[in-house]
Design a protein that fits this description.
Order of helices and strands: HEHHHHEHHEHEEHEHEEHEHEHEH
Shape: globular
Helix content: 40-55%
Length: 328
C-alpha cells in the first residue's frame, strides 16, 4: 500500500508542471515584506550589487540598502528605488529557491516581474536589466502627467463595461489582474474626470497606485526610446525556461516574440487572467509557486473562477521554515 502511495506521488510530480510567478512592484511595496526580505543574505547582496551597478554607470548613489528598511517614498525617486530593489529581491529569492533543490518548469512575470523572469531565464544579464530599469524610470519622468490606479469591482468587469466607460473617458486598462481587480492608467486630467463623473457617482472603489501612467499609450515614447537598448541586451535564442507572456497571453516561442514582448510590456495592457488560463489550457496539472516575496499573484489566482482540482499553490517565501533556511 505504501509503495502505491509513493508511486502515485512520483507520477504526480512527473505530470505536474511548476510555474514560478514573479510579481510586479507589489513584490516589496509593503514595508514589512521589504524588511523581512532584506534579512536574507542573498537579498542584501543583490541589493548592494544593484546599488554598485547604478553608481558605476551613473555616478549616482540611490541608497538602495537603506530603502529596504524604510517606509515607502511616494515620488519618482521612490518608485525608482522600488523598481530596482524589487528586481534584486526577486532574482535573489529565485536563486535561493533553485539552490534549495526545487524544480521550475515554466516562468511567468507580471509588469516588473517580466524583467526578473527574463534575468533568470538568461534572456538578459543582471547588469543590463538594472540599467534598462534605471533608464525606464528616468524616461518615465518625461512622459505626459498621468497616474495609475487600482479599481475594485463587486461585479465582474464584463458586466460593468458600460458603467466604467474607460475608453470614452480616455483611459486604458493597464493590468488586468482578475475579473474584479485591475489597474487603469491615463492622463491626470482624464483620471480626475473619471473619478468625478464615473467612480464617485457609481460608488466604484479605487486606489491611487503611482503618480504616473504605466502600461498605456502615454508610455509610447519610453518604449521607443528603449527599443535599441532592449535589442542589444536581450539574447532571445538562449532561454533556460519556457516563458508565458502577459502581453500576448501565451507562451513565447519565437525570438521576435520575446524581443517584442519586452518592448510592448512598457505601453500595452498586461492580461494576467488570460495568461493563467492559457497555462491551464496547455498543462493538465500545475503548481504555481510565488517567488514573491509578496504573494499577490497567488491571491489573484484564488479569486479566479478555475478548476482548483488541477491547481496547487505555494507561497514559498512566506513559509517560515523556508525563510529560516534562506537566512542561514
Amino acid at each position: 500500500f505504501n509503495n502505491w502511495i509513493l508511486r502515485l506521488e512520483l507520477l504526480k510530480l512527473l505530470i505536474m508542471k511548476t510555474i514560478a510567478l514573479f510579481p510586479g512592484t507589489d513584490a516589496i511595496e509593503k514595508a514589512e515584506i521589504r524588511k523581512m526580505a532584506f534579512q536574507m543574505k542573498s537579498v542584501k547582496a543583490k541589493v548592494t550589487l544593484t546599488e554598485q551597478i547604478v553608481f558605476k554607470h551613473t555616478g549616482r548613489s540611490l541608497s538602495l540598502p537603506d530603502y529596504m528598511t524604510q517606509e515607502n517614498e511616494r515620488s519618482l525617486q521612490g518608485f525608482q528605488k522600488l523598481v530596482l530593489c524589487s528586481l534584486a529581491t526577486q532574482v535573489a529569492i529565485f536563486d535561493s529557491y533553485k539552490k534549495s533543490g526545487y524544480k521550475v518548469d515554466v516562468v511567468m512575470g507580471l509588469s516588473l516581474g517580466d524583467i526578473a523572469r527574463s534575468v533568470v531565464s538568461n534572456i538578459v544579464n543582471y547588469e543590463d536589466a538594472v540599467l534598462l530599469l534605471y533608464k525606464f524610470t528616468e524616461l518615465g519622468a518625461t512622459v505626459a502627467p498621468g497616474a495609475t490606479m487600482q479599481v475594485f469591482l463587486e461585479k465582474p468587469i464584463h458586466e460593468m463595461e458600460e458603467t466604467l466607460q474607460l475608453e470614452a473617458s480616455g483611459l486604458e486598462i493597464s493590468v488586468l489582474q482578475n475579473d474584479h481587480f485591475f489597474l487603469i492608467a491615463g492622463g491626470m486630467k482624464e483620471i480626475k474626470n473619471w473619478i468625478g463623473k464615473i467612480a464617485t457617482p457609481h460608488q466604484i472603489k479605487y486606489k491611487l497606485m503611482y503618480p504616473f501612467p504605466l502600461h498605456c499609450k502615454l508610455m509610447d515614447p519610453v518604449s521607443k526610446a528603449l527599443a535599441d537598448d532592449i535589442d542589444k541586451a536581450c539574447k532571445a535564442d538562449q532561454t533556460l525556461y519556457p516563458i508565458f507572456s502577459t502581453v500576448f497571453a501565451k507562451e513565447l516561442k519565437e525570438q521576435e516574440e520575446i524581443l517584442n514582448d519586452s518592448k510592448l510590456n512598457i505601453n500595452s495592457t498586461l492580461r494576467f487572467t488570460d495568461t493563467i488560463k492559457s497555462i491551464l489550457d496547455k498543462y493538465k496539472k500545475v503548481k504555481f509557486v510565488s517567488i514573491g516575496p509578496a504573494s499577490t499573484l497567488l491571491k489573484f489566482i484564488e479569486k479566479m473562477d478555475l478548476n482548483v482540482s488541477n491547481i496547487e499553490m505555494e507561497d514559498w517565501f512566506l513559509n517560515t521554515k523556508n525563510i529560516d533556511g534562506l537566512t542561514s
